[in-house]
Amino acid sequence: MSRPVRIQSPLVLLAVCAGLAAPVPMAAQRPAPAAGQRGLVLGDLTWVEAERVLTADAVIVIPLGAEAKEHGPHLRLDNDRRLAEYFRGRVLASADVIVAPTVNYHYYPSFVEYPGSTHLRREVARDLIVDIVRTLAAYGPRRFYVLNTGVSTLVPLADAAAILRAEGIRFSYTDILNVGKEAEDRVRQQVRGTHADEIETSMMLYMDSTRVDMSRAVRDDSPRGEGGLGRTPGTTKTYSPSGVWGDATLATREKGRVVVEAMVAGMLREIEALRRAP
């Protein structure tokens, strides 16, 4: 015996149709940046939100800065990590990017004679970055930029770039010695130096003066040797009992402002050039 077909009322049918046309749930929409930001922080997203934004046209930014590396008697061991976090914030505020977690260990062979400094072997530092990029690239992105705050780090970053470009991944990084060079040349007074020196100390005075003790700043600018800085005189290394290479006593907040603002502008230009790359 067949059952009679029950006809739904027009009101019920309208409700069903309205449900089919309902907006996509918020979890499936592209997440909005935090107040004051253009970019997104990867760690703030759920995996569902990450799936929405990790697309082929996304630009992924990876901050890189040592959290334990000597910077003389007047700057803290975490100086480079603080540089990276500062630049991270400036890039987030101005660029449509997705910022991955900060990498705080890398290749720093020049400072191992000074207690507290950490260092990864060249191939380990290279593979660390390659693995991070490959993991994120598997979800869609093909453009990556490392906000690099070191000098020795340029070596394994170049190694990583060669590997990743062969896989069709656009990969670039900050050359911290050149991204703000014009500004540095305008304000520099020291004879020589690139570490915990006039320029780097000025930058931290501008970013966060509470992390600088200028009463302990020194001039330590022996002619450059080979193999990084050393505490023992008479070796082939650049002799520096303080861990400074340059003249930190010449640092000022205004010099830091000039250099930092030029660096931020240069980083943003490089990120946009990466975004436009085919």
Question: Can you walk me through this structure?
Answer:
- The chain has 278 residues and is α/β, with parallel strands linked by helices.
- It has one domain (27-276): 3-Layer(aba) Sandwich (Rossmann fold).
- Helices cover 37% and strands 10% of the residues.
- It is built from 8 helices and 9 strands.
- The strands form 3 sheets. It has a 5-stranded parallel sheet, with helices on both faces. Strands 6-9 form a two-stranded antiparallel sheet. The chain has a two-stranded parallel ribbon with strand order 7-8.
- Helix 6 packs antiparallel against helix 8 (253-276) and helix 7 crosses helix 8.
- The longest helix is centred in the C-terminal third of the chain and has 24 residues, at 253-276.
- It starts with 9 loop residues before the first helix and ends with a helix.
- Mean pLDDT is 92; it is low at 10-22.
Summarize the structure.
The chain contains eight helices and nine strands.
